[in-house]
Amino acid sequence: MRATEASPLSVPVYQILLSLSDRALHGYAILKDIRERTGNKVVLAAGTLYAAIGRLEEQGWIEEAPDPPADEAEDPRRRYFRITDAGLAAARHEAERLRWFARMAEDKELLGKAAREGGE
Description:
By secondary structure, the protein is mostly helical. The chain has six helices and three strands; from the N terminus they run H-H-E-H-H-E-E-H-H.
């Protein structure tokens, strides 16, 4: 599936692709990265993670890494995943889409109005 056919991406899928955008990770490390990067605003259940990983593998957006990263101790129980070129394209496409929407909100001064009115 091409990136332009898949947008918008779900929050779990986008966050998984972001986690894998710069390094291979195993499942628990993906969960931890998402939780830390989002300040606990996005917390995925293991079932959600592994269902999304299965779909992402089927789409060819991620793949199992043949070896753990050099800084990781080998543990045969862990499966490491890495993003593919197609997955990176999908993540970039979604980031551009989100930036486009954010610019519209800025142009309308929506973010400034929310801050003045006590919103986040």
